[in-house]
Write a structure and sequence with these properties.
By secondary structure, this protein is mainly α. About 85% of the residues lie in helices and about 0% in strands. The radius of gyration is 23 Å and the shape is globular.
């Protein structure tokens, strides 16, 4: 068995690390440029075709938010009931409201909602965009003098951000009020002062952080899912690969954003 020179092994390892770092940095730059291009189009919001942009935006809100309520509300109720019942046993009534606010409103609510949106909408957007690239539909739009970013990407970004903010709010309300109502009606757990404790535990920072997380989650999910779709080449086999990478990357960005905002506001 031939023993390789340690210097050569170290050199190969450093080369791989360097190539990976350069590829990641280049990818993040491309992603940032794509996001900036969409935001720039938002500031220009053209007069021509405005009714079409409104219609596509509303369709995206309907698909991402309204059609997801059947899964968001049950998941919120299950989590709300579980947390209230479990933490009621290990904490006093005075602490229960604060625990629910910290776990549901600050952390678990936004990230769980983001996970649902990634599974439902982000994957669908990546697949749709990828197939449009494979079938040359994006090129057809450009040949017709239509900017795909303006007609396709911009309304989807606005629609997914709007839907994300609404879903996070609905998730938190359903988890707290729905969980409280079901636990109060079906168990003997004392819940007389629960809503008062939740109201006292909620601070302006909680509303701000929850809204910011929903906003940045929506932007990250929309930009990453569309960027992955636009990156698909001419082979149809690239679509599932781009969809998988896009979903994982969306989740990664959401976790990073959640951690950064929590550190900024609560440390």
């Amino acid at each position: 068995m031939q023993i390789r020179n340690p210097l050569i092994v170290l050199s190969d390892f450093m080369g791989r690390v360097g190539r990976f770092t350069i590829e990641r940095f280049s990818h993040y730059l491309d992603l940032s440029a794509f996001a900036w291009r969409i935001i720039r189009e938002m500031s220009r919001w053209p007069k021509e075709g405005r009714s079409l942009l409104y219609r596509v935006t509303l369709e995206q809100v309907y698909f991402t938010a309204v059609q997801a309520l059947w899964i968001v509300i049950p998941v919120a109720l299950i989590l709300g009931i579980s947390l209230i019942m479990q933490f009621n046993r290990i904490s006093g009534q005075v602490d229960l409201g604060k625990i629910v606010v910290v776990i549901l409103v600050r952390e678990l609510g936004p990230i769980t909602t983001a996970f649902i949106v990634i599974l439902r909408s982000a994957t669908a957007v990546t697949i749709e965009t990828g197939y449009m690239n494979v079938l040359h539909e994006m090129e057809t739009l450009e040949m017709g003098g239509v900017d795909p970013v303006r007609l396709y990407a911009l309304p989807r970004l606005i629609g997914m951000v709007t839907a994300m903010v609404c879903l996070v709010f609905i998730f938190s309300i359903s988890a707290i009020l729905g969980g409280y109502g079901i636990v109060w009606a079906s168990t003997n757990i004392p819940m007389q002062n629960f809503l008062q404790q939740v109201g006292k535990a909620l601070t302006p920072e909680d509303y701000i952080v929850s809204a910011l997380k929903a906003l940045f989650f929506g932007v990250a999910i929309a930009v990453v899912s569309m960027f992955r779709g636009f990156s698909v080449g001419r082979s149809i086999t690239e679509v599932p690969v781009a969809t998988s990478k896009g979903a994982v990357e969306c989740l990664f960005f959401c976790l990073v954003i959640s951690g950064i905002l929590s550190l900024l506001f609560y440390l």
